[in-house]
Design a protein that fits this description.
Blueprint lengths: L33 E3 L6 H6 L4 E5 L2 H27 L2 H9 L5 H14 L30 H8 L2 E5 L2 H5 L7 E4 L22 H16 L3 E7 L2 H7 L4 E8 L11 E8 L1
Helix pairs in contact: 2-4, 2-5
Length: 268
């Protein structure tokens, strides 16, 4: 694996930067297409830099941002620099409330809000409007930014706004599928934040497990990260290898309230 070659340009609740250095033991020696149906910050994708891939998410604004960087990374970065110069409390809410039509404006706005909002959360109201308050971080341009390298990595990727099942059903023999869904457990008893208008339900978790089984039966390599909860383990006990991994939680406003918790990695 190519460690830290490209740093994801987004901070994402539940992001998998911490996992990329631990995946070597779970990856196949070779694979054809790379498929990721819950893209988020794309940490695993950027760490692997696959030759061809299908990247997807139900978050339409997220997918628009990726596609716009792929098509015109210079335009997006230049507009982001303009946001950086103007950034302050009032300007944040002005941009948050602004409705843009231009793709470059929309992509730069998405990145700007992601970097300056509270804890990098993505949350919308019932009208689909982003409503996360401003956070404490004020760096809009980061030292790790390399939008050209990001665009190059995305050059051969098909990036689509789609339901996960449709994308997973495209996985064929020899493909690698990495899946990192919202961590909903049975009875929806969990502390994670939904990032799109419709909650990822327990029924979706069941539907996901069936799609994963079908992909595996077709000969695809599948890696799933999910909540370490018995209800999730029960879904994969009969057909997946389950390992538990520990990580530090960063989803808390007070660092003293952040602790370690475990997630599971299911491989098929």
């Amino acid at each position: 694996m190519k460690y830290n070659k490209i740093t994801p340009f987004l901070k994402w609740a539940g992001g998998k930067r911490w996992l990329t250095g631990k995946l070597d033991d779970y990856l196949p020696k070779s694979y054809n297409n790379y498929i990721e149906p819950f893209l988020g910050s794309g940490a695993v994708f950027f760490s692997l830099e696959p030759k061809t891939s299908i990247l997807s998410d139900v978050n339409q604004s997220l997918i628009l941002t990726y596609n716009t960087i792929k098509e015109d990374h210079v335009g997006v970065y230049n507009r982001l620099q303009e946001h950086a110069v103007k950034h302050c409390n009032d300007y944040y809410y002005e941009v948050r409330n602004q409705e843009y039509q231009n793709k470059i404006e929309l992509a730069a706005r998405f990145i700007y809000l992601n970097r300056t909002c509270f804890n990098g959360l993505y949350r919308v109201n019932l009208k689909g409007q982003f409503n996360v308050p401003i956070g404490s971080k004020d760096k809009v341009i980061l030292e790790t930014d390399n939008f050209k390298k990001t665009a190059d990595a995305l050059a051969n990727a098909e990036i689509i706004n789609s339901d996960f099942e449709i994308v997973i059903d495209r996985a064929m023999e020899g493909d690698l599928v990495y899946i990192d869904p919202p961590y909903t457990v049975k009875h929806n008893n969990n502390g994670f934040v939904k990032y799109n208008e419709q909650m990822f339900t327990w029924a979706d978790q069941v539907r996901l497990s069936k799609a994963i089984k079908r992909a595996s039966d077709r000969g695809a390599h599948v890696i799933l990260s999910n909540a370490d909860h018995q209800s999730i383990r029960d879904l994969y006990l009969e057909f997946g290898k389950i390992d538990s991994l520990s990580r530090n939680s960063v989803i808390a406003s007070d660092p003293l309230n952040r602790g370690k918790y475990s997630e599971i990695l299911v491989t098929l």
